[in-house]
Amino acid sequence: MSRRDFNIAAMPGFATIAIAAFVLLYMPIVTMVIYSFNASDSVALWGGFSLRWYAIAWENDFVKEATVRSLVLAASAAVIASALATLAALGTTRRKRFKGQTFIYVMINQPLMVPEIVTAVALLIFFAAIKKATGYTGLGYLILAHSAFCVPFAYLPIRARLEGMDLTLERAAADLYATPFQTFRRITLPLMAPGIAAGAMLSFVISLDDVIITEFVKSAGQDTLPTYMLGQLRRAVTPEVNAISTALLVLTVLMLTAFFLLTRKRG
Amino acid sequence: MALSQSARNGWLLSAPALILLAVGAAGPLLIVVIYSFLTPGDFSGVEWTFTTEAWFRVFFERDIFDDTVSAADAHLTIFWRSLKLSLLTTLATFVVGFPMAWFIATQPPNRRAAWLFLITIPFWTNLLIRTFAILEIIRNQGLLNSFLLWLGVINDPLQILYTDTAVLIGMAYVYLPLMVLPLFAAIDRFDFKLIEAGYDLYASRWQVLRRIVVPIVRPGIVAGSILVFVPSLGAYVTPRILGGGKNMMLGNFIELQFGQGRNWPLGAALSMLLLVIVLTALLAYVRVTSSEGRQNV
User: Fold this and answer.
1) Is the whole-model pTM more than 0.90?
2) Residue span of the structural domain in which B82 resides
3) Which in A112, A154, A196, B146 has the greatest CB count within 10 A?
4) Tell me: the pLDDT tens digits for B56-89?
5) Which of B127, B132, B255 sits opposite A241 (nearest CB)?
6) Pairwise CA distance, residues B244 & B163, whole Å
7) Contact (CB<8Å) A25/B173
8) How many domains, in total, are found in chain B?
9) Is residue B21, in this structure, part of any structural domain at all?
10) Selection from B51, B84, B68 nearest residue B263 by Cα
């Protein structure tokens, strides 16, 4: 059956284009990974295998600080965004459509629609005024901004999960005299957990990925890994950036793989 | 009081997320609107004097000596480049992305997941890293030029970096997964029996593709195009790294106003212009998809 479908659906040249595109998609990334193990000072010449640039990046205090900051920021944003998105998803699914629901959808998805540079500019202006008024220049601004733009990324998988759950089990629990809190704690929450985990992981990676908003919002000395790399690229391309990029890449791939395995087992 | 219990709970549960978004995303946009009508401060920031000068300067310039007004050619060049590169990026990702999505969707189910995984890895990988990776390939001593020199096709390295072509290559490269994923979702739902029916009725391959497949998967095409076009138009990182200082796009020009340009009101006006263009595109998308929904019913 699937074999016949395959033949019917075959389009000449499509497979060739697709395979070539996959190769081109991976070639730059693979090249970067290979060159991160280059012993030579130059980014162009191959000087043999070495972990030298990893050692240099590891020793670099700026990189260390930026890494810690990036991870703290991503973890905070993931926790805040997925918690608020869970509440919002519970509020907007599995109930009769109510007035203003479209407004809630638009607000939640707003960060997906507005170009990032526009939000970055808006936050720069807004936070500059607050910084001047209060004198506070801590990490709070970045956490606030990152949590906000992560909300839609957390909301979408959680809502998708909730929409796939009918109310039968919750009704059964209520019939058996469970309190609303017990029903939520023992039935709803465990059932929607994979959606929440997916939303949190999505938020974590989206926050870790962010350059533009962070670049505009950060106070002096608040580089994250991406903004540190952007600053380095402005000066000169060093193989050190290759090493940091590869490390970040490995982190992303590990998280993705874990995520796929997790959801596969449960679903 | 008109609010039912269910609606009230809906609002209460959504409230924390709405407040966060109002403070951390949507609300500050209103401040940008206000700033676009103020006078630039001496060093940075603004002075609270109302003027439409910033909006005027988006499109026109005044001669310093005789006050004659002419079109702001430099700005128009940047707008045109942003629009042109975004449209070309959308087109390029579609031409490459459609066969890719088709290929993945027609794989046997057990292998499909693996191919999808291969497209999601670049999708999740930091945009900066991917831009940086493509920079390594196209620079003068990069892999592409070395390869072409080795082949003997060229005698001197091609200057691709810091041109519009470099920005186009880079944007098509980084945004390709955004085109492939919605296309795949649409093709995956496609009933391949329709192709069989088309062939039975003596349609050619091209006719099948054009008259049966494309109309049915159009929502996916439109969604992919929007997903690529919108971030391309506001792109900042890719043109900054691959385009260099001269080949600015709208995003970089906006940033310039808040940095060296020291003209926050002009930057605010330009941001609002970008926002209006993007929202218009999104609204057109909603119109197209909802009217299509009606036709299908």
Assistant:
1) no
2) 42-296
3) A154
4) 888 888 777 777 788 888 899 999 999 999 999 9
5) B132
6) 8
7) yes
8) 1
9) no
10) B51
